[in-house]
Design a protein that fits this description.
This protein has about 100 residues and is an alpha+beta fold. The protein has one domain: RelE-like (YaeB-like fold, 2-Layer Sandwich), CATH 3.30.2310. The chain has 3 helices and 5 strands. The protein is globular and about 40 Å long.
Length: about 100
């Protein structure tokens, strides 16, 4: 199944890359890129692998590592990645991303 990233997913992915590069190191940033690629490949083969985030079953939440997750949905044709989330951010901000997706 094909994985499609929304504009917001691309934006939040690159925001997280920038954060890692500025605050950690190039190695940590490269590790994140590899983890995302590996997780997307895993998701392609098994879109139902992660748990539902909400009781309405609108979004699933996948985990890149303990620091980063992503929100997605899927149907029979494609998997839509809505956005990436830094798990250390204020959870109140998460509502804004959910509403935007």
């Amino acid at each position: 199944m094909k994985v499609i990233w929304s504009h917001l997913a691309e934006e939040t992915y690159f925001d997280n890359l920038e954060y890692l590069y500025k605050n950690w190191s190039q190695t940590v940033t490269q590790d994140f890129i590899i983890e995302v690629e590996e997780t997307m490949k895993l998701l392609e083969d098994n879109p139902d692998i992660f748990r539902w985030w909400d009781s309405k079953k609108q979004f699933k939440v996948g985990y890149i590592n303990k620091h980063f997750s992503f929100f997605y949905s899927f149907n029979r044709q494609e998997i839509q990645v809505h956005f990436f989330w830094n798990n250390h951010k204020d959870p109140e901000q998460l509502k804004k991303y959910i509403e935007a997706s």
